[in-house]
UniProtKB/TrEMBL annotation:
Source species taxonomy: Bacteria, Bacillati, Actinomycetota, Actinomycetes, Pseudonocardiales
UniProt protein name: Dihydrofolate reductase family protein
GO BP terms, alphabetized: riboflavin biosynthetic process
One Gene Ontology MF term: 5-amino-6-(5-phosphoribosylamino)uracil reductase activity
Organism of origin: Amycolatopsis mongoliensis
Pfam family, one: RibD_C
Signal peptide positions (record): none
Length: 124
């Protein structure tokens, strides 16, 4: 499911298109180029990550076991940095966790940058 954020004054509108890029463009233009809210699973994430259209993940953890499970998406490589934004409890014991996706910065670069900022004689 794909939709754009609208104020409560507007009714929900559904659009369908077999081409994900065209659908994304339609939704963005309907929302004056603003954010689009995407709801789906691994295939949906893969498709829209390939279009570089995912900048935030809102995951809901349900309180039951399903065995080994499946990978959320292959497009989120091990070097994809997730920046924690928030979490909240939902009715029935579920938990919503929100992360922003950002560029990966190796730990050694962060340490050098922090040292450089605190030591005037040290350059990164």
């Amino acid at each position: 499911m794909l939709g754009s954020h609208r104020s409560r004054a507007h009714r929900t509108r559904w659009c369908f298109d077999s081409d994900p890029a065209r659908l994304l463009e339609r939704l963005r233009s309907d929302n004056s180029g603003g954010d689009v809210h995407l709801v789906g699973g691994p295939s949906t994430i893969e498709t829209f990550r390939a279009l570089d259209a995912v900048d935030k993940l809102e995951l809901v953890v349900l309180p039951f076991m399903v065995g080994a499970g499946m990978r959320l998406t292959d497009s989120l490589a091990s070097d994809t940095a997730l920046s924690f934004e928030s979490s909240r409890s939902l009715p029935g014991g579920s938990v919503e966790i929100v992360h922003s996706l950002r560029a990966w910065i190796p730990a050694r670069d962060v340490a050098i940058t922090e040292r450089a900022a605190s030591s005037p004689g040290l350059r990164a």
